[in-house]
């Protein structure tokens, strides 16, 4: 094992020198920033445009059978009440351009349809007709209906809610944030490193250089060095993702009017057992997943063959997300319990339950124990497969080769 440090250094430096590594790592936060900025500016511009449209006055006539809209409001918006039995004439005037719009408001708004006829003024500008009618109906309703009733109907009232647990104020969100960090980190690591785990041994295998490497380094040292280097690279990727994100938030919040999240950060509860459980599941789950993918890549003759097994592994790993609603229950059902102890699904399942606070001490110990044992077995089997599969060109490695009968 004296060459272990050499292997780790070589693998880490080789990966960090690849432009594709930096492109894949930096493209994700840059993409999120770009999408977020575009969404923010698009939403703000759309909202501004709608507000401008609602404030515009147009030449229109209206027939209000509901008697909700006041004449003063109609006049203030630049319109007039249509003559009696003048619906058809008003619509004709819209067609000829004499009127910008005509509104017909039925007596029963709950059952009948409001009719709007407008002259085309562009795709975006056409939205002004419904905006103006909306303003007239709301403002006129406020004049005649109690304001409290309007607030109640629109659910626009403010609430202050306090939940108590064991006699003390309980804030589930503040207790979920810290454990959720481990779930986010695990998901990001798997998302970013899975391809590298899968191709960690197939490159040398396809290039036929493994035999030369193994003349100076033991296979056990080489594979353990690769696994440790993947862990180091994973930590580097996490730092690369989080540091720019935090710095970008601190810089952008002064320019984009981002709400102050300081009260949320100060309310986070850093409890020992949820944090410890999350850390153990994160480490054990990552080690098991790494050993599994490294073993697959060592057993498969090419990276293309390894990808066929990779999709199945990812499907199992992400299976708990398909049953996410089941994880909200305080008492887990049989499906949640099975997902919590099955090694391929337990990392996400345990982290979800740990985040929602539904992981009991017994289920936590049982799930973590099974996951840790599975991680050890996965690493052990990966080392065994690597010994036989790394020089097996053009053929998959069978279990008989890895575990021969004595």
- Sequence stretches where pLDDT stays below 50 over 5 or more residues: none
The largest β sheet comes out as:
4 strands, mixed
Q: What percent strand?
A: 5-15%
Count the E strands. 6
Can you walk through the features of this model?
Helix 7 (172-198) crosses helix 10 (219-252) and helix 7 runs parallel beside helix 12 (272-299). This protein has helices at residues 4-16, 19-55, 71-76, 87-96, 127-144, 147-153, 172-198, 202-206, 210-213, 219-252, 262-266, 272-299, 303-317, 319-322, 334-341, 346-356, 361-389, 399-402, and strands at 60-64, 79-81, 101-105, 115-118, 163-165, 168-170. The strands form two sheets. A four-stranded mixed β-sheet has the order 2-1-3-4, with helices on both faces. A two-stranded antiparallel ribbon has the order 5-6. The two termini are 27 Å apart. The model has no long low-confidence stretch (mean pLDDT 78). The protein is mainly α. The protein is elongated. It is built from 18 helices and six strands.
Brief characterization of the structure:
This protein is mostly helical and 406 residues long. Helices cover 65% and strands 6% of the residues.
